[in-house]
Amino acid sequence: MYTPEQLVVYPAQGVGVIERLERQRVGGLEAEFYIIRIFTNNITVMVPVNNARNVGLRSPCSATEANAVLDSLRDRSTFTGYSGQNWNRRYREYSERLKSASLLDVGYVLKELILISGEKELSFGERRLLEQAMGLVTSELSCVLDREPGEIKSHIENFYADVLAKPEKSS
Fold first, then answer.
1. Helix (H) or strand (E) holding 44
2. Mind listing the pLDDT tens digit for each residue in 72-110?
3. 130: nearest Cα among 114, 116, 108
4. 115 CB-near residues (< 8 Å, 6+ apart)
5. pTM of structure
6. What is the reported pLDDT for 155?
7. Distance (Å, rounded) from C-alpha 126 to C-alpha 113?
8. Are 100 and 106 a contacting pair, CB within 8 Å?
């Protein structure tokens, strides 16, 4: 069970703080909820205490896990390249990974989309997923490693400087 003022990670939203526990009547049943304020967008979410694990609510990763995520982002050996895969299938896979309770899964989406951007122009949906993945990774790593989100983002972008600095296509 989590306590007020404890940091938690809510999948697909990011790092937040439990502001309080609250009892409410929903559908005729009394239930207890975590009231969580998410740092990146300042929204408040209510998560039923007895369902927190099922929705993937978790404590932030350890420093060791954070460094493992950075190592996995640095490692390109598993990237096979964009081969014209069905965007709908990739979108579903990436969306599921972003909702995962594993920061490694979120990092996988981030790495894939950055590397795909080196091979083709990302669609609007891909760019949106890339931004979401970058936000989720940078917010949690900055919290865990006690560094600014911008510093973490720059660090990650440096891993892919060759991909991100590709020359503009001429018309």
1. strand 44-48
2. 999 998 887 766 667 888 899 999 999 988 999 999 999
3. 114
4. 76, 79, 81, 82, 160, 163
5. 0.88
6. 94
7. 7
8. yes
